[in-house]
Amino acid sequence: MNAPSTSPLTDVVDAAPPQAPRSRVHAPGRWLIGLALPLALALGWELAVRFGLAQGRLMPPPSRIFAALTALARSGELTTHIIATLMRVLAGFALGAVAGTLMGALAGASELSRRIFDPTLQALRAVPSIAWVPLFLLWLGIFEASKVALIAVGVFFPVYLGVAGAIEGIDRKLLEVGRVFRLSQAGMVRRVMLPAVLPEWLIALRSGLGLGFMFVVAAEFMGASEGLGYLLVDGQQIGKPDQILAAIITFAVLGKICDAVLVAATRPLVRWQDTARSSL
Amino acid sequence: MFTIERLTKTYADGTRALSDVSIALEAGEILGVVGGSGCGKTTLLRLVAGLDRATGGRIAVDGETIEGPHPAVGIVFQEPRLLPWLSVADNVGFGLVDRPRAERLERVADALARVGLADYGARWPRELSGGQQQRVAIARAFVTSPKVLLLDEPFSALDAFTRASLHEHLLSLWEAGRQTIVIVTHDVEEAVTLADRVVVMRPCPGRVYETISVHAERPRDRLGVGFDKAKRRVLNALDRSLRAPDVERDRAAAQGDALWW
User: Mind listing the pLDDT tens digit for each residue in B238-247?
Assistant: First the structure.
């Protein structure tokens, strides 16, 4: 009688500490749960079309989208389109991120330059970026330059706002530590201000990259002969919804990969952070 | 020798934070500063640390006037203020980057050992408890061997046990370097535990109200006669300093009445 009454107690006591490691073992597979909903929807639609419950002409079932994707991939077309789109995004992102970082740093560091530049930039930000398209086409022609410029404009604003805000938000108390140790202006920037704004800068870059992908579609709508955006327009014009959906799925995958690469590449820089983000 | 002569600080809005504060400390002396809120304790330290500019008066270390942040003066703030992107060791060595690497590492290791954190050099600040972080901050201030070390209510956010152990760490670092220390605190017992002399300040504007010498051997016995006597004298002075402005105001009012009539 004694043994069974004590064993549950010890069980409870022993079970408590391994709780955390056990959930960590599950962690690598945990993201799989996010796949359940889209997979279920896809499977449901596939079956609905198979059994004649739906026509699937305007919304093709997954099997046909997949077939369109493999056909595009086999002919090498997909690679061409992906590379074209990726190059535009990267070029526009690089330009926008550099310009946004520099202007943001200027506006954040100097009150005077903030008062000179910020109102103008805020006014320009209020312009829907697509509204620039006709102007860019006139100025830069219909080829790559106008597309890259449009993407750069889209990337610029979130990066600018993020950097300027981050610099204004630097903890005065940490700057005082720098002053107590008599850091020079350059030393203060390098040893206190830059590391302090780094996390917010990276977040700004991430949202900039996301907007870059948004704008590349707009850019490719305005007359491109290759690129995933072209694939979308082309699919609409020749009435192939499977091609449109194939392009959309490629966009989703490509955008996610680019974001993941950016996060992975910059993670070592913000390892020190004590925020919820580190556990996300 | 660390001297403060007729130090005055008036803020832009006309608030008189400090008025005519004069204090002289021998090398190696520990001074406790207590007083009601708004009596300019923190202002005093910020002026000495060079973070704010005095309106009048002079601060000098060994005859050299201090007008801004100075290598001879170190400060520990109320919060640890560690740089979260640097490891514990790099935080301690923050003020030593211009020294050769070998010397820097040796001094950092020594300082960390003295605050009992020898094995924590590679950790991030976020992995440390509040008390441990404050010990790192103290090590960071001591490691550059300043002649004068200022501590601004450094233990006020900690529990009594942690505070007592930090007092020991502080005194052990002081034994090694015999710096002049000015510690601002709102805890009278802490002031009497650590200091050779306790200055009681008085608010509006902040000025020195009374100075009390603590005659007791170190390590201090909290139950000893000398300790208790000093503590009571400080508490007494603190009490009077807080009441004093009313008396003066009454007197001023009385004079005003006289003029009116």
Answer: 888 777 655 5
